């Protein structure tokens, strides 16, 4: 069918509840497509992790238990990788321009500042109470947070540098 | 930023939901822009002007 505004031919894709894949044929349902790599990943992980389980249980049973537990997670992760977000019902083509994205960004900034404050206060409290190990751990957490902020700033700064 | 968005939208008989779909953003975004609580990004401002067949300066007033 032809798009009225542009005159270009378009393909009608049946809407899917869980979207369609972003690669290749875009009419393939993303969740069904994610089943195969998801199952394969959970089986491989089951085999690899079976060695960490008690020896009293047969190896095949251990692998199967781990595979069954990990299967929903593996399928979900593959779905996230494969799905084209624009094909999910209820999504906006320009979600990054929504006020909700702006609110989320501001919430992230605020939560980081609150966390820095809490860690600093906890460090002070631990020092005053003589809990030196806790104070040391919290100081390390604080330094790590500040280092991550500096690195993130440098990354953003130089990523936009032309 | 002050704007004439709500007035222009009502003149065309569009609901906030309809305008949000034309712009590809959420209805809450349209509400917040109309109330002056949120300034749109430049691409969104240009799309607004395009949808209303107007200019950005005609829609938004500093």
Question: Can you walk me through this structure?
Answer:
The complex is a heterodimer of chains A (162) and B (62). By secondary structure, chain A is an all-alpha fold. Chain A has helices at residues 30-49, 59-82, 99-128, 132-159. The mean pLDDT of chain A is 85. Chain B is mainly alpha-helical and 62 residues long. Chain B has one domain: Orthogonal Bundle (434 Repressor (Amino-terminal Domain)). Chain B contains five helices and two strands, in the order βαααααβ. Chain B is globular and about 25 Å long. The model of chain B has no long low-confidence stretch (mean pLDDT 93).
Largest interface pair: A-B, 9 and 14 residues
- Cα gyration radius of chain A (Å): 24 Å
Number of strands of chain B: 2
Overall mean pLDDT of chain A stands at 85
What is the radius of gyration of chain B?
Answer: 10 Å
User: What structural category do the secondary elements of chain A indicate?
Assistant: mainly alpha
In spatial order, strands of the major sheet of chain B run 1-2
Question: Structural class, from secondary structure content of chain B?
Answer: mainly alpha
- Calculate the mean pLDDT score of chain B and round it: 93
State the share of residues found in helices of chain A, binned by percent.
55-70%
Give the name of the CATH superfamily of chain B.
lambda repressor-like DNA-binding domains
Number of domains of chain B: 1
Order of H and E elements of chain B? EHHHHHE
CATH topology of chain B: 434 Repressor (Amino-terminal Domain)
Low-confidence stretches of chain B: none
Protein name (chain B): XRE family transcriptional regulator
Pfam families (chain B): HTH_3
Organism (chain B): Bifidobacterium mellis
Keywords (chain B): DNA-binding
């Amino acid at each position: 069918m032809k798009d009225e505004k542009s005159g270009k031919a378009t393909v009608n894709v049946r809407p899917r509840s869980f979207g369609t894949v972003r690669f290749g044929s875009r009419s393939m349902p993303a969740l069904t497509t994610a089943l195969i790599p998801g199952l394969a990943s959970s089986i491989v992980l089951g085999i690899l992790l079976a060695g960490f389980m008690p020896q009293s249980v047969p190896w095949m049973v251990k692998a199967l238990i781990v595979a069954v537990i990990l299967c929903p997670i593996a399928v979900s992760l593959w779905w996230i990788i494969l799905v084209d977000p624009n094909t999910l019902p209820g999504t906006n083509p320009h979600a990054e321009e929504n006020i909700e994205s702006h609110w989320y960004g501001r919430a992230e900034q605020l939560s980081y500042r609150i966390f820095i404050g809490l860690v600093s206060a906890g460090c002070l409290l631990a020092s005053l109470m003589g809990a030196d190990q806790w104070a040391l751990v919290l100081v390390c957490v604080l330094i790590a947070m500040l280092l991550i902020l500096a690195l993130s700033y440098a990354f953003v700064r130089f990523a936009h540098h032309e | 930023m002050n704007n004439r968005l709500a007035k222009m939208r009502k003149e065309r008989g569009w609901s906030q939901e309809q305008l949000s779909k034309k712009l590809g953003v959420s209805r809450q975004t349209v509400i917040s822009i109309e109330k002056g609580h949120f300034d749109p990004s430049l691409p969104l401002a240009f799309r607004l002007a395009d949808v209303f067949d107007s200019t950005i300066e005609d829609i938004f007033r500093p």
